[in-house]
Structure prediction request, 531 residues.
Amino acid sequence: MSFIQTGPEIDYQEFDQDKLITHTLKWLVDGKDTRQDIKNDLLRFYTEVLPKAAKWSQQAESHPPRHIPYSPWGEKVDDIQTDEGWKKLDALSATEGLIHLGHHNSSDHGRIHQFLKLFLFHPDSAFYTCPLAMTDGAANLIKQLKKMGHLDAKKIAILDKAYKHITSNDPEQFWTSGQWMTEKSGGSDVSSTETIAVADGENYKLYGTKWFTSATTSQMTFTLARIQDSEGNTQSGNKGLSLFFVKLRDKEGKLQGIRVRRLKDKLGTKALPTAELDFEGAQATLVGQVGCGIKNISNLFNVTRIYNACTTVGSFKRLLDLSRNYSQKRVAFGKRLIDHPLHKRTLNDIEVDFEKCFKLTFYTVALLQQHENNERAGEDIAEDDHDIQVMLRLLTPIVKLYTAKKNMMATSELVESFGGAGYIEDTGIPRFLRDSQVFCIWEGTTNILSLDCIRAIEKENAFEVFYKKANDKLEELEEEKASELRERLNHLTQQLKSWSKDKDLIQYHARDLAFSIAELTIDIFCIELDY
Ligand SMILES: Cc1cc2nc3c(=O)[nH]c(=O)nc-3n(C[C@H](O)[C@H](O)[C@H](O)COP(=O)(O)OP(=O)(O)OC[C@H]3O[C@@H](n4cnc5c(N)ncnc54)[C@H](O)[C@@H]3O)c2cc1C
Prediction:
């Protein structure tokens, strides 16, 4: 019989991530019992739930969503039909508390637990993690809106009800949320948004086109529009944009005041419905402050960007595991691939990049956790929280852009590590390459996020806080290690000083700056995670 190659496999009964998870918990979670509880849940999730999720995910990938504009009898239905596998992933997300854990957890480690679970889930989720990201972002947005103090009781009740649904762990009650900003005129620059909001009693009706709307099957969304005055005028630019809440469906589940133009024909993320749609008088509630739409909605994507990083490292790890597994099975020139020094080195170099991405991601998750714990603890902690908030503000765009870019490069290399098989659809490997590209684009491209990092430095003195905290941390390290890092930190400080003299020059170097801060953060602040 002729030769047959054995393909790469994930053995769900072998918890390969054990070491990584154990060390991460040791790094970020206080209390042996709490660590053990989290680990037990992750082990159960990995060995018992993920094998089922993997099947549903494959099913959903093989049966992408379909848009049914009309019924056979000509009635406008605008139905988006998704596969049963996709629906099961929705129910799993609720029962496993993938949002709930981050919002209704009595321990101070709910976010760490939640994000480790998302990290494991993502490769078997068919990108259900995309609606989850926007849903968790929406939950954060609701919390922040309520703190601003501008909402009346009726609006608070609407938002409270939504919050209850989107953070529920009951599949019957669980809702997901969209985040619809991008229009034809721009996603990076939403200042030309054309959607208008026309007063309708206490509420508004929306008219306009949203050009990219993922999670089109959700029950609610947050979106931006320009309020039209009684003479039909609107204010242009960012200052004319306000934030609206839209409940998308009526009691029968039909979209209200919304027409789906079509589903996007995408490079990857095939199971995820992403549509172009028109608001045709959709009922909307103004929930932000008038003219502060962009500032308000940033509370949403501050969370979605951390999700992006976490799911990126989840995908990165899975492909690396598959490649390592294959390297033990495939023989060339009389030896297994892994026994060839150059192949081994290639994989080891990629592993180093994975570790950097993982560390930066979970350091940022830990900052989110600390900030939320401080918020819960109340006012007197506010001063201590300042530095944590600023670090979080600085690192959120950086962790997203850094992990997405590193993963994209690693994914290309890892696809190559399977040779020709990596290019063949039904090995399941090419999907990683198609899917990885999106991590660099949505939630802000690499350039846009690098510029956002500069904004954090200019508006919130973020580099000063970073510099101070980095120096404090260096005090704790052995001098030999510390002096090399101090040199790098001081060099970057000098560079930033000279770049900052000219507006174009600092923009020109924005990526250099973001990547340098990422690498310094990993080397200085993540030193305890050694596994
Ligand atoms: C699968 C998918 C799903 C999506 N889902 C959603 C969704 O649910 N909701 C939503 O609102 N959006 C969604 N988007 C849209 C996405 O967020 C935008 O495509 C993205 O933000 C980029 O905007 P754009 O397409 O207008 O690109 P552009 O803004 O036209 O950017 C083009 C290029 O120019 C660069 N660029 C732009 N401005 C600058 C500058 N000042 N300096 C340097 N470089 C610059 C960018 O980095 C980019 O490389 C989705 C996109 C995809 C692919």
